[in-house]
Amino acid sequence: TRTGNGSPVGGVRLKSGRLENCLIAGNVGGSGGGGVYVEGAGEIVNCTIVTNFCQGTDEPRAGGLCVANSANAKVTVVNTVIWGNIDRSANRKGDLLDEAVKGAAGTLTLDHTLVKDYASLDPSATECLSGYPKFRKPLRFDFHLRTTSPCFNAGALWDGIEDATDLDGRPRLKWSKPDLGCYENPAGGGFLLHVR
Length: 196
Fold this sequence. Notes:
With 196 residues, the chain is mainly β. Helices cover 2% and strands 31% of the residues. It has one helix spanning 118-121, and strands spanning 2-3, 6-7, 12-14, 17-20, 23-25, 28-29, 36-38, 41-45, 48-50, 53-54, 65-67, 74-78, 81-83, 86-87, 96-97, 100-102, 107-111, 114-115, 135-137, 142-145. It has a 5-stranded parallel sheet with strand order 1-5-9-13-18, with no helix packed on it. A 5-stranded mixed sheet has the order 2-6-10-14-15, with no helix packed on it. A hairpin with an 8-residue loop joins strand 14 (86-87) and strand 15. The longest helix is centred in the middle third of the chain and has 4 residues, at 118-121. It is globular. The protein starts with a strand and ends in a 51-residue tail after the last strand. The model is unreliable at 90-95 and 189-194 (pLDDT under 50).
């Protein structure tokens, strides 16, 4: 979990590797991004990237996820929620809801991820969503999903998921598919039937 940080890149600078089950929230960045800035090859899996701010003037930049303008910057984002991030750059008028951007030379692959305008970011995006993720209490930094969330049971299966857990330590594969984001919804779906 990376929250409330302030630096040139607010949350995480990903040079290589894998971010998994991460909550990246409430960070303020200058150059590049408020949440995650990708410089090298990597993966972002089952993360929640929310309410981050970018105040820089360098391009490319984004409040949530920014992929550098470099052929080395290649990231695959799977089962992740990127929502409610803002670019507050000095050269723009007002706040701009700016979830993710990619430099012209960078590569961004989206798979089973909730992010605004996913089709313009990755025209070949696989089963992605846009819209409100329905967090439990986002104003209190509670980014667990409600049972009515479109992110519930909407993720992709991956090798090793049978033994994986979420950020709270709950099994990742409780139902047929994992949820999007860093937390599994413990309530699950279905209904309760009382017979007398």
